[in-house]
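re: ur question from yesterday

yeah so i grabbed the chain u mentioned. its 113 aa long if i counted rite. heres the sequnce exactly as i have it in my notes:
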Amino acid sequence: MANAPTLIAYPSGELRITGVMTVPPGDGPFPVLLLNHGDIPAERYTSGDDLHQGEADTEVKPQWAVQVRDALQCAGKPVEYFSYPGEGHNVRGVWQVIAERTTAFFESHVRHA
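ran it thru and got these structure tokens back, copy pasting raw so excuse formatting
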């Protein structure tokens, strides 16, 4: 079983970016999967991205995720886009599906990149 999630924060210019880190049990080292969203230029991605968007999200508009997807595709990066009808920003009802899809993307495009 994984350790309890830990709130983390780091500076990014004038912003403070926050997230949740979960470390698996054991001594490591562990691969890192950083889940972040926002305005990241497509050319800065080194291995593409998988995007998960709740269609009822009022915090991150679904069309923004589509714009990121399109920019990554134009930059020649691997990208997978999934939308979830009825789900809001936290997509709580589909966490297991997201975890499985993100793990598969990581294995296919990141771990061996």
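noticed a couple things. DSSP finds two helices and four strands in the chain. also Residues 6-110 form one domain.
anyway ttyl
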